[in-house]
Specification:
The protein has helices spanning about 15-30, 45-50, 80-95, 185-190, 220-225, 230-250, 250-260, 265-270, 275-280, 295-300, 360, 395-415, 425-440, 465-475; strands at about 5-15, 35-40, 100-105, 105-115, 120-125, 125-135, 160, 175-180, 195-200, 210, 290, 305-310, 310-315, 320, 325-330, 330-335, 350, 380, 420-425, 480-485. By secondary structure, it is α/β, with parallel strands linked by helices. A hairpin with a 4-residue loop joins strand 4 and strand 5.
Amino acid sequence: MPDLPAHVRVAIVGAGFAGLATAIRLTQEGEDDFVVLERAHEVGGVWRENRYPGAACDVESRLYELDAAPNPDWSRRFAGGEEIGAYLRGLVGDFELGPHLALGTELEAARWDEDAARWRLDTSRGALTADVLVAAPGALAEPRLPDLPGLDTFEGPAFHTAQWDESVDLDGQRVAVIGTGASAIQVVPGIQPRVGRLTLYQRTPAWVIPRRDKALSPRVRRLLRRVPLVRKALRGSLYVHHEALGFVFRHVSLARVAGHVLGLHLRRQVKDPALRETLRPDDTLGCRRVLLSDDYYPALTQPNVEVVAGGAVEVRPGGVVGADGVERPADVVVFATGFYATEFPFAEHLVGADGRTLGEVWGASPKAHLGTTVAGFPNLFVLQGPNTGLGHSSVLLMAEAQIEHLVNALAFLDRPDVAAVEPRPEAQAAFVADVDAQMERTVWLSGCESWYLDETGRNAALWPGGVGAFRRRVGPFDESEYRLHPAPAPVHA
């Protein structure tokens, strides 16, 4: 493994989609003075970590790819996790990123040096400095385990879906799955035929709508490979379709009407009235993350499956206690309990110009200018930061807009008299206020609890508008919104 460079113009932290997309965009701009720091020994981010049975994307493959790297050979309408991981690994060779990768290198701390106008980084493999720091740790990078009494007393294997233990044989086992979010609706059908008994602990029923996944025939894939215009047209039609879905989420009355229509999916797939009532969501469509599945409901109707309403309240050595007070035996516990989506654990490692960490500055409610830069943290660019998530389309489209902002900022930093840029506090406050005002009218603030909301009740995860509006607002770099740090005076011997 080569040594770390002593200094780079750009240090990128994270080799998932956003980090690799940044590296690709820099190479396209002719910038080769950068390094990608990745704590794991392989690229892939969330698609490296999430290897549970049934793992797949819930956005169509054609929209869940980088604009710089279209893939005509996706095997399915919705690609599986293994295929997405292979796509990401392929980017390294296709764009010759290998020399820029520092795998097995964890960022331990980063501190802005005002005098030198650069970031000082401490990693598990040594120190380096960088003019610009790009934080691309991923929005769903740190698994969240529930705070259940007795969790440490369980005598069998217990693991999160993002930390799947492939050494555990589930065949014929009694498996407790805790959580009913996006991972659960994939892993439950993935393991249900194998296990002896599956108990699903559901705290809150989710909206599940048809996925309509299907394999793409060799003939279709040949067409997409040979006629790029068809591939672009398909991608464009998917973009428009998802933007229309986003319009529904921004109007509560429309979302309620859509919920009545989409509720047919539950009625068609679950015939047992009692189970159907247990699975029926009571909040507005979109208030929580909407889930896509064709096989989740059918899996729950199988004779070896039980759904426990109210979720789990305690773990004991031989089983899990549900909200009904009944202990049900379990040999294995699987946590499908999501991630730290609004806490951003990486923020505790970044120290800004005033000596405070980003975590201290953000407190209970993370906020950023354009979801990308933060007042008090010069030359820091956060990808998939606060208010850049989506409830209706591909987050890669959002990350690409943020990367364009970075590229445009780097062009501005080419000026010899400017060493660093940071958003003006008033510009950041105005952006956040506008986001919050738009959010008031959406389904995400219509009364339910969700992982979109931070500790203060603010939706710190999602962008309240369409993708197009975000790209138009975020892509350009407006110097009037930024404070410019002058270049340090040269040191004479």
